Amino acid sequence: MASETERAKRVAVVTGGAAGIGQGYALQLARDGHIVAVADLGPADETEKLIREADGEVFSARCDVADADSVAQFAAAVTDRFGHVDILVHNAGIYPIVPFAQTDWATWRRIMDVNLDSLFHLTKAFLPGMEQKGWGRIVVMASATFHSGPAGMVAYTASKGGVIGFVRTLAAEVGEHGITVNAIAPGLVRTPGTLSGPQQELGLFDTLATMQAIKRAGVPEDLAGTVSFLTSDAAAFMTGQTLVVDGGFARA
Ligand code: NAD
Fold first, then answer.
1. In tens digits, what is the pLDDT along the chain, a chain of 252 residues?
2. Is 94 strand, coil or helix?
């Protein structure tokens, strides 16, 4: 097997890579030597700048991961440019905090579309190329809420439960092709999404930190090492798993 330095650069797609955890993943994967392609609803200028400053190679395009046509356009652009994708990080996600009684159908559907149905669109687009090459890494964002089940997050937690089911079962189908499928389940992390939501006002960053083994709020950099490992050759024998990265809130 070629060493990580000898082989051609791998291409990594990161969804939701314009900000937050996804931006941290994109930067880490570029530092690991991969070409990074970011799919995001918004412009990924800041991520592009950070990666170029680190001498990395990056491409980004606007894409709504919930929309099959938008994903097809993104996949065509990435494939035209790079020919293949080796690493797929399904990171884009939304997490409105709303009690089930006030959750309307449109909100429920949007959460499922973005957090769960997107896995269908993107994996359909990039899995065949990985199977052809006989190597691939798929990482999906779950959430520690799947284990803790907090009030106000029924649709979100159900979508992340779906993500974990996806990982377990797809792993069984693609392992023979050298492809691994794993999930990362973070606890609360300081990102543009959580900092602009009610989490701050509810005091969640402080409250949860006191219950964690590591008594501070998580930041995107805390997750970068996990995605780096899961997408490396070193993780070849690990698949179908959900790794909890939450400062030791859950200690199972
Ligand atoms: P964030 O809101 O800070 O950033 C999300 C990024 O995804 C943004 O750039 C946004 O434009 C993009 N995005 C949103 N919807 C999109 C869509 N339909 N198509 C393409 N891009 C889209 O989010 P974050 O806090 O960094 O969370 C990232 C992931 O981590 C999500 O899947 C989330 O569920 C998961 N997660 C986050 C936390 C946390 O505390 N931050 C905890 C557990 C899990």
1. 445 555 689 999 999 999 999 999 999 999 999 999 999 999 999 999 999 999 999 999 999 999 999 999 999 999 999 999 999 999 999 999 999 999 999 999 999 999 999 999 999 999 999 999 999 999 999 999 999 999 999 999 999 999 999 999 999 999 999 999 999 999 999 999 999 999 988 899 999 999 999 999 999 999 999 999 999 999 999 999 999 999 999 987
2. coil
Q: Looking at ligand 1, which atom is closest to the CA of residue 142?
A: 44
Interval between CA 139 and ligand 1 midpoint (Å): 14
Kindly provide the residue ranges of all beta strands, DSSP E only, lying in the chain, ordered along the sequence: 11-15, 35-40, 58-62, 87-90, 136-141, 179-186, 242-245
Q: Ligand 1, residue 191: give the atom nearest the CA.
A: 3
CATH number of 4-189+221-243: 3.40.50.720
Binding-site residues, ligand 1, Cβ < 6 A: 15-16, 18-22, 39-42, 63-66, 91-95, 114, 141, 143, 186, 188-189, 191-194
User: What distance in angstroms lies between residue 80's CA and the mean position of ligand 1's atoms?
Assistant: 27
Residue among 69, 189, 200, 222 whose CB has most ligand 1 atoms within 8 A, to mutate: 189
Write down the residue that tokens 């409105």 correspond to.
96
What is the number of other CB atoms lying within 10 angstroms of the CB of residue 190? 18
Q: Is the pTM of this model over 0.90?
A: yes
Q: Hey, whose CA ends up nearest to atom 7 of ligand 1?
A: 16
